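Here is a typical sample entry:
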Amino acid sequence: MTKIKWFIGIWFVMICWAAAISFAGDSETPAKIPPIPTPGMVTMLDLGAHKCIPCKMMAPIITELQKEYAGRASIIFIDVWEHQDQTQRFGIRGIPTQIFYDKEGKEISRHMGFLDKKSIVATFESLNVPKENSK
């Protein structure tokens, strides 16, 4: 059963990727990409697309985490349909892909597919990002 779930997951990601190619030209001027990783901060880079189903599912989680971790961790989203050059830059094989960097800018982990909030928070904890701002 695990192999079937894995196959379905890979198939779904590849369908999203194929859709990325067909929709790539229908966006407006792409947003500017900030420095990645953010210097001196733990960084989570989420590479996806605004029209990809699992990416849409992650969007509210990313927005929520950006507010919760403001000033303590950098959470960046790049739409690879708007910024096709970033797929090669980051070695993306499917979307969404999340890449985590430590404070020194070293890649610590990478995940392909939907990633829930609990897993993201656990990764931040493993990188010693405080849960709340200290006053």
Helices lie at 2-23, 53-68, 85-89, 117-126. The beta strands are 42-48, 73-79, 97-101, 107-112. The mean pLDDT is 85.
